[in-house]
């Protein structure tokens, strides 16, 4: 069965999400930004969500996590929780 590990940053605006994505592209550390800005409890651990399979996350999240290139920041991805930056850290098929 497919599984993935990922990390994310959850914020309440698309603008902040874009701003953080630009900072990461400019060399700032994803985990540091997650600890500082993410409203998800996972922010305390740098946004790490651990390992999960298809269907364990909301559909918008699943679609990105199980199709996006590994180690490439994706987003903003809008869900009912807010706006996410996602980075798939590993995936098995």
How are the elements arranged and paired?
Blueprint: E1 3-11, H1 14-25, H2 30-37, E2 48-52, H3 59-65, E3 74-79, E4 82-92
Antiparallel strand pairs: 1-2, 1-4, 3-4
Features:
29% helix; alpha+beta; 93 residues; 3 helices; globular; single chain; Chitinase A, domain 3; 4 strands; 4-stranded antiparallel sheet
Folded structure, characterized:
- The protein is an alpha+beta fold and 93 residues long.
- It is built from 3 helices and 4 strands, in the order βααβαββ.
- It has a single domain (3-92), classed as Chitinase A, domain 3.
- The longest helix is centred in the first third of the chain and has 12 residues, at 14-25.
- It has helices spanning 14-25, 30-37, 59-65, and strands at residues 3-11, 48-52, 74-79, 82-92.
- The mean pLDDT is 97.
- Strand 3 and strand 4 (82-92) form a beta hairpin.
- The chain has a 4-stranded antiparallel sheet.
């Amino acid at each position: 069965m497919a599984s993935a590990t990922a990390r994310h940053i959850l914020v309440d605006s698309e603008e902040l999400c874009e701003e953080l994505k630009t900072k990461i592209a400019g060399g700032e550390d994803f985990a540091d930004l997650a600890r500082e800005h993410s409203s998800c409890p996972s922010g305390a651990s740098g946004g790490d969500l651990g390992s999960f399979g298809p269907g364990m996350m909301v559909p918008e999240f699943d679609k990105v996590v199980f199709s996006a290139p590994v180690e490439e920041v994706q987003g903003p991805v809008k869900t009912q929780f807010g706006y996410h930056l996602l980075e798939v850290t590993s995936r098995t098929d």
